[in-house]
Every structure is written in structure tokens, then in C-alpha cells.
Amino acid sequence: MTETDTVQVEATGETVGEAKWAALRELERLRPGIDKAAVRFQVVSEGERGLLGVGYAPARVIASADASAAPDEVEPVDESELAAEVRDVLDHILAAVGVRARVDIDETDENVTATFVGGELGLLIGKHGQTIDAIQYLANAIVWRNRGDERKAVVVDAAGYRARREASLSTLAKRSAERAVGSGRSVELEPMTAVERKVVHVQLKDVPGVVTRSEGTEPNRFVVIDPV
To answer: Is it the case that residue 157 has pLDDT exceeding 80?
Structure first.
């Protein structure tokens, strides 16, 4: 195989997402360290369930990537069991939604942060971060399902989205608090996810002259800033 060759595998699964995941795993076995964002998928068949389970046909996909997408020498990654499980869960999700991205893991004593890196991250983030929050919730639920040890938070990010959104929410919270104090009236913010509402509450908890509360029902729950 020359450097210009293409690595290609075919895989099957009960769904197209499962077939993509299986193909990606086989590519990683053949070319350790391959850049997942460079992998191309061709759906050969979406599969058939068949009537009452009769005539089942699996989904089939072909995954390919240039040999240059993987380095000649890959340094071994020293990951904990928890980090490896988080990576596996997120790889499953990427394959299921059909987004090509790399998962970078950073683990500290407090949390495991998994960051998606790639060019098609809008689908993973979703409106107001609803999708990335759902992925984070799912990852935490799965990896801690059968673990009895002390929990370490799993944070899922996409190309620095959380830091940018937190900065935006902090600015919004401060300006809205100033408006509430200046007008003497409560200020209602737009509907937010639980993660985003927490950012606002924390940002304003020590600000004199205002208190915050949440109102409404999901997914339209929002923060209200009341002047004291």
C-alpha cells in the first residue's frame, strides 16, 4: 500500500448508524490513529426489518479514507477506563447521526471533558445547545449506569462552544440585571436549557439588588430576574 492509497472497508449493522460505527472501528484497527473527520461513508443499503422479523436484511455501508489521514507512527494514548468508555459512547453517537468528527478527551480530578472537533458540528450543537446538552446527559447516564464509585462529571463540548455560550450568557445576565434594577421590574430571559439556566443563576447569585428564579416547563423553561 502506497501513501496515496485509500483504505476502504465494508460493514453491516442493524441500522445505518451501527454499520457506520462498525466500519469506523475496522478502519481504526487497520490504520490506528486515523482521523475520523476524514472518513467518507457510502450507504449501500439501509436494510430492511421485514414483516414480523421475517426477511431481515442488515444495513450495509462502505467507509473509506486516504491512507495519509492516519500518521505513520501514532503515540499511544494513556486513557482511563472511564475516558475510554466516554469516547466509545460518543463514537457511537457520531456514527448514528452521520457526523464526521474527532473526539478529544481531557481528564482531570474533577471531570472528563470530551470535545468534538470537525467541520460539521452544527448538528451536534443544535439550537441553543439543546443537542449537545442531550448528548452530554446521555453520555453521563450511560457511563455511570453500572458504576458505584464516586462520580466524575462528563462534559461534552464542540469546538469551544460551551466557553463561547457561557461568555454570551454572562454578558446577557449582567445587562438584564442592570435593566431590572434600573426599571424596578422583573426581566424574563429567553427559554434556555438547564445547563444554560445554571450559568445565569451562578453569574447573578452574588449580584446585589437582584434575585433569580426559573419559571415555565421544559423545553420552554426560562430565567426571571427580579429586583429586590
So the answer is: yes
Domain of residue 150 covers 77-159
What are the tens digits of pLDDT across the range 185-227? 999 999 988 888 999 999 999 999 999 999 999 878 999 999 9
Grouping H, G, I as helix, E, B as strand and the rest as coil, residue 111 is: strand
Residues 60 and 4 in one domain: yes
Closest C-alpha to 138, from 199, 94, 78, 105: 94
pTM greater than the 0.85 cutoff? no
Same domain, 88 and 145: yes
- Number of structural domains (the chain) is 3
| pLDDT at residue 62, as a whole number | 85
Cα→Cα distances 163→23, 115, 156, 160, 196, Å: 33, 12, 12, 6, 11
Query: CA angle, corner 63, sides to 59 and 68, nearest 5?
Result: 170
Q: Which three cell numbers stand for residue 164?
A: 463561547
Same-domain check for residues 45 and 89: no
With cut-offs at 50, 70 and 90, classify the pLDDT of residue 57. confident
Task: Look up cell 499511544; give the residue.
Answer: 76
Instruction: For residues 82 and 147, state if they share a domain.
Output: yes
Cα gap 113→120, rounded to integer Å: 19
Q: Which residues, 6+ apart, have CB-to-CB distance to 225 below 8 Å?
A: 173, 176, 177, 180, 186, 187, 188, 189, 204, 210, 211, 212
Which triple of cell numbers denotes residue 8? 476502504
